[in-house]
Write a sequence for this structure.
């Protein structure tokens, strides 16, 4: 599989802003910062402006890869995978985040559809917020994320979303995936405003690849570039 990022460690900026003006400012302030490896756009920007327009705006400034996070893709019937993947391809995305909570048949279909279009699937299982897993009062079986990750590895997926504010879970999922893949790659939200820290998250991933997904701690900062530099420097300590 082709690599999504040039570096083994870095920061992905989550562009959860509501206007194209704020998006462009965010990218302009951060795209030249060493250690920033890509941008994640979500459904707010995607539904407001359309993925092709969002991609165009970002690519006017940088050629860093764009990841689409539909919050949460892969949770519908298998037949929707083809159309969803084609929309992401037409929209200029390079990677696409899936959270296959609707079961293995849909998970396989969405992964296959992305691979068929030369897109890189990034599979998540456990989220960052409280009351997600059943053991914490949530709806999702506590072993379901493990099953989602394991099936993705069997399908050849190399990139995974794990909760950056839950270091013990990061370690658990690395131990699950490392025997199945030559070099699993972990993308971690929950760092910054949700309490996670790069050093505590990355310490379990020194022998693989790790990317912090950081949003509001950067784009809500009074000094966006300086905030990005702080997070990026921490990530690059592990290079």
């Amino acid at each position: 599989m082709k690599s999504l990022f040039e570096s083994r460690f870095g920061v992905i900026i989550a562009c959860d802003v509501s206007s194209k003006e704020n998006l462009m400012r965010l990218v302009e302030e951060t795209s030249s910062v060493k250690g920033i490896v890509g941008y994640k756009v979500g459904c707010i920007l995607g539904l407001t402006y359309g993925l092709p327009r969002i991609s165009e705006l970002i690519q006017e400034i940088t050629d860093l890869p764009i990841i689409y996070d539909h919050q949460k893709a892969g949770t519908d019937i298998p037949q929707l995978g083809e159309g969803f993947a084609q929309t992401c391809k037409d929209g200029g995305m390079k990677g696409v985040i899936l959270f296959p909570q609707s079961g293995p048949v849909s998970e396989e279909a969405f992964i296959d559809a992305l691979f068929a279009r030369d897109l890189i699937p990034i599979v998540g299982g456990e989220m960052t917020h409280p009351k997600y897993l059943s053991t914490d009062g949530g709806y999702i079986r506590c072993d379901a994320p493990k099953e989602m990750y394991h099936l993705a590895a069997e399908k050849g997926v190399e990139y995974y979303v794990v909760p950056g504010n839950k270091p013990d879970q990061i370690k658990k999922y690395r131990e699950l995936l490392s025997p199945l893949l030559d070099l699993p790659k972990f993308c971690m939200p929950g760092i910054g405003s949700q309490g996670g820290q790069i050093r505590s998250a990355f310490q379990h991933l020194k022998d693989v690849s790790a990317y912090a997904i950081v949003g509001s701690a950067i784009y809500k900062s009074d000094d966006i570039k300086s905030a990005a530099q702080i997070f990026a420097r921490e990530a690059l300590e592990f290079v």
Summary: The longest helix spans residues 104-116. The chain is about 40% helix and 15% strand. The chain has a mean pLDDT of 96. The two ends are 22 Å apart (CA to CA).
